[in-house]
Amino acid sequence: MEDEEAGDVPFREVVGCLMWIANNTRPETSNAVRTVARHSHEPKKSDWKAAQKILSYLKETAHLTLKYKQDTTVDVRTLVYVDADFASKATDRRSVSGALVLVAGCLVSWFSWTQKCVSLSTSEAEYIAMGDGVKKARFVNGMLQFLRPSAKPRKIDVFEDYEGAIALAENPLSSSRSKHVDVRHHFLRNLTEEGVIEVTHVPSKEQHADILTKALPRNLFEVHRDFVLGSVAEK
Fold it and tell me: Across 105-186, where does the E strand assignment appear?
């Protein structure tokens, strides 16, 4: 049966290898690997088949790599695409955060992880994901400032596809609908007011961080994958 235990198979070893690959060289596999890794404590046959499917995909697409190119004319700015999948984890209904951080059109950092707290709405889940993504982007900006101390600090461009989360980041007023959002995430408002970040709405079909939070149709997956691996920033 599909839900039987996986048995004597190197499931944890395979998952460990997949996690290294997802975290270092193949970001488009992050969501699938995260989903499989959740079952490491008690893997089923279906989990083992899922891990094998990821391995097969990597073997078939071994020619795909992250691409970086030298270009002295490119605009050196930091972009971050952020997304969340609300209440996607059936066992405890925790949401998933995902973010892509690009510098000068090149992907330099990304993550796909389960949020530590339970979000009560899509707005909250997206807002938490935005906070996680901005933290990562600020760290990258700090590294850039260290490497280029004479350069003027640049504003971080944040791309979000959910209007409710954008309103929470930009609106200085609170309401009964947003008070449940944890205070620690409201630093986004301060960063917006200080001009450190600028949050821009992006259509869902152009939200490339979707590839880090949810399963996608093949054609859409390949569009986002080409963007991520090709590392070509949109204008």
Answer: 106-114, 156-160
